[in-house]
Amino acid sequence: MRIHSRHKPLTLPQRYLLMTLGTLIMAVGVYFFKFPNNFSTGGVSGISIILGRLFPNSFLSPSNVMLIINVLLLLLGYLVLGRSFAFSTVYCSMLLSLALAGMERLWPMDVPLTDQPMLELIFAVLLPAVGSAILFNLDASSGGTDIIAMIIKKYSSMNTGTALMVADITITLAALFFFGPKTGLFSILGLLMKSVLVDYVMDSFRSRKCFQIITTQPQPILDYIMSTLHRGATTEDVHGAFSQKQMTMIITVLNRGEALMLRKYIHYVDPHAFIVITTSTEIVGKGFLSI
């Protein structure tokens, strides 16, 4: 069995560009859709909405409250977690807070964008879910309650996922009391949607096509995978039970666009190749998830 690998990891500028994009997508969803509708679906943004609406004519607008809470949580995280506290979390958390504060000054909003609360709820959940998925796939975080989860994980055996879910439910239920049944029920629906959407979007980003190619023309296919697609491959000599021929099996993992290109190329080089294509969301190894 032979392994061929030619995949370049993200550079530091590329990583921070993607983190910035993911954070700004989150900010758009929170400011334009969550804040105006009082959709409190947990987390720091949910607390900010409740506290901001309790003091509507003061400095404590939702974006300012979120900035204050995030700064306090970052300080707590640094004091408790020390050097293990990732700089990427500090960067994304502060960028999110400052982006919300900037949007509040550039585009002040007193009412929702539309008169369709369900439509706005979808965007209020979908955009932060996409942004969070981008950050999670980069091993980054926007801070907030994730910092509390890190601290809980360090000092106790408590299930952090359960603890954060209880906190989110408590914050969401508070919307029933502060904003009435309609907004409260929308917030509860948003929390349920968020719990499903984040996992779905993350799986979509991580989705890869796993190829097992049995062919009598391995070299041109390998050259195409490594030189054109810049991906790695594993080869193994196999024996066809029906044809009684010696052949080569090539194993490689690609994204959707690369998979389509490779299928077309294989059809051109070896129309009789046998190909098994499966979809996976967990690929661990060089060029994909770290071990």
Structure, explained:
By secondary structure, the protein is α+β, with helices and mostly antiparallel strands. It folds into two domains: 12-205, no CATH class; 207-280, Alpha-Beta Plaits. The protein has nine helices and five strands. The chain has helices spanning 12-37, 43-54, 62-81, 87-106, 117-137, 145-155, 160-206, 218-228, 256-269; strands at residues 2-4, 208-215, 233-239, 246-254, 274-280. It has a five-stranded antiparallel β-sheet. Helix 8 (218-228) packs antiparallel against helix 9. The longest helix is centred in the middle third of the chain and has 47 residues, at 160-206. The chain starts with a strand and ends in an 11-residue tail after the last strand.
SSE layout and pairing:
Layout: E1 2-4, H1 12-37, H2 43-54, H3 62-81, H4 87-106, H5 117-137, H6 145-155, H7 160-206, E2 208-215, H8 218-228, E3 233-239, E4 246-254, H9 256-269, E5 274-280
Antiparallel strand pairs: 1-3, 2-4, 2-5, 3-4
Helix pairs in contact: 1-4, 1-5, 2-3, 2-7, 3-4, 3-6, 5-7, 6-7, 8-9
If helices are DSSP runs of H or I spanning 4 or more residues, what is the number of helices?
Answer: 9
What number is the mean pLDDT? 82
Estimated structural class: alpha+beta
Number of DSSP-assigned strands: 5
Give the uncertain stretches in residue-range form. Answer: none
Number of domains as seen in the coordinates: 2
Rg for CA atoms: 24 Å
Main-sheet strand order equals: 1-3-4-2-5
Q: Describe the biggest sheet?
A: 5 strands, antiparallel
Distance between the termini: 22 Å
Shape assignment: elongated
In what range is the share of β-strand residues? 5-15%
The helicity comes to 55-70%
Query: Could you spell the SSE succession in H and E letters?
Result: EHHHHHHHEHEEHE
